[in-house]
Amino acid sequence: MAEGGPDEGSAPPTPSMSSLPLAALNVRVRRRLSLFLNLRAHVAADWTALAEEMGFEYLEIRRLETHADPTGSLLDDWQGRPGASVGRLLELLGKLGRDDLLMELGPSIEEDCQKYILKQQQEASEKPLQVDSVDSSIPRTRDPAGITICDDPLGAVGWWWLSLMITCKARNVTSRLSLHSASLQVPIRSD
């Protein structure tokens, strides 16, 4: 970065921003980055130098040259690789001596990162509260056997009524099936 006092646009990102994924950068910032890096210049590092610093091999760089926006394609490809982050991109641009990019795009990058962080926090607050562990096999009743007829406010009468309704429904279904010459196969339990 430039010598002297830290400029507003060249201030290093906060630690939370440096670990953000590259997806935090919106189209506007990516297009402006492409405007700077797509130009072949002998005095400043272009997208090919950035690609080499990102760990891309010669044939990968040659393939990216065929795209209309090689910088945009480079960022899209790099975003899926391990270690790709906004902080790492800024670090590589600084290593390549592209302080002009850092000063010009710094405020826009920081704004995109802030929006991304706020969106992530909002999505996290809207998620339903869930317990990480599943322990449904542990009985939650005082009686280790589970629910009994004593737990029903109607007692045995309620259970009797429920079993009667199920039996009537089953008879109704089987009578409808017999009208259509069909049968209902119910396996017999042996317990």
Automatic annotation (TrEMBL):
Signal peptide annotation: none
Species whose genome carries this gene: Balaenoptera musculus (Blue whale)
Gene: MYD88
GO molecular function list: TIR domain binding; Toll-like receptor binding
CDD domains (alphabetical): Death_MyD88
Keyword field contains rRNA-binding: no
Lineage of origin: Eukaryota, Metazoa, Chordata, Craniata, Vertebrata
GO cellular component terms given for this protein: plasma membrane
Keywords: Immunity, Inflammatory response, Innate immunity
GO biological process: one example: innate immune response
The protein's name in its UniProt record: MYD88 innate immune signal transduction adaptor
Entry annotated with the keyword Acyltransferase: no
Domain Death: 32-109
